[in-house]
């Protein structure tokens, strides 16, 4: 399982946002060797990221607004959206919607509490909720999501940890 992807610097401030890009490259290199359907796994992983991890770019509702942190959240969300838009296996309707959301939230000043809230609502409604609905409407998307979460993820967790940390955690 020799993959020509350098181990990421986990101390990099933007690593959390960039990790899905590295993870996808790593999967594209390793999954064929494991006999796993790469296309279906990549779609499932991207969907999982959109409806799951991307929300971490925003404060939990109970946390006080912090303009400095919100700037990091914006940068991280834009990195992740750009990656997801570039995932060619995702349906065009999803990629186009993410592009629209990216354009909208990018224009907002996240240091303003009011504009931050507009960005959060726009992302929740027009990205996360939209993608969740697309998954519900498409047997193929639902299958890809479950394939990744139920079959692929358990198989690749240990090799991914070894790649990322040099050991299992």
What are the salient characteristics of this protein?
0% strand; 169 residues; mainly alpha; globular; single chain
Can you give a write-up of this model?
- This protein is mostly helical and 169 residues long.
- It has one domain (15-165).
- It has helices at residues 15-34, 38-51, 67-85, 92-107, 113-137, 139-165.
- Helix 4 packs antiparallel against helix 5 and helix 5 (113-137) packs across helix 6 (139-165).
- The longest helix is centred in the C-terminal third of the chain and has 27 residues, at 139-165.
- It is globular, with a radius of gyration of 17 Å.
Give me the count of strands. Answer: 0
Task: Give the ordered list of helices and strands.
Answer: HHHHHH
Helix fraction by DSSP (H/I, runs of at least 4)? over 70%
The coarse overall form would be globular
Count the domains: 1
Number of helices: 6
Instruction: Give the helix/strand class.
Output: mainly alpha
Model regions low in confidence, pLDDT < 50 over at least 5 residues: none
Distance between the termini: 19 Å
Q: Report the β-strand fraction as a percent range.
A: under 5%
Output mean pLDDT: 92
Q: Main beta sheet: strand number and arrangement? A: none
Compute the CA-based radius of gyration.
Answer: 17 Å
């Amino acid at each position: 399982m020799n993959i020509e992807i350098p181990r990421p610097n986990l101390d990099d401030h933007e690593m959390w946002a960039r990790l899905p890009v590295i993870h996808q490259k790593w999967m594209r290199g390793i999954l064929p060797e494991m006999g796993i359907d790469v296309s279906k796994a990549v779609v499932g992983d991207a969907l999982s990221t959109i409806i799951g991890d991307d929300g971490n770019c925003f404060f939990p509702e109970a946390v006080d607004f912090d303009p400095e942190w919100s700037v990091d959240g914006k940068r991280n969300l834009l990195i992740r959206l750009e990656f997801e838009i570039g995932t060619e296996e995702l349906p065009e309707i999803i990629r186009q919607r993410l592009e629209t959301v990216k354009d909208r939230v990018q224009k907002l000043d996240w240091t303003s509490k009011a504009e931050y809230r507009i960005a959060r609502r726009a992302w929740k409604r027009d990205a996360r909720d939209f993608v969740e609905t697309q998954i519900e409407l498409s047997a193929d998307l639902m299958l890809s999501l479950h394939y990744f979460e139920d079959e692929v993820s358990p198989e690749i967790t240990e090799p991914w940890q070894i790649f990322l940390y040099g050991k299992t955690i």
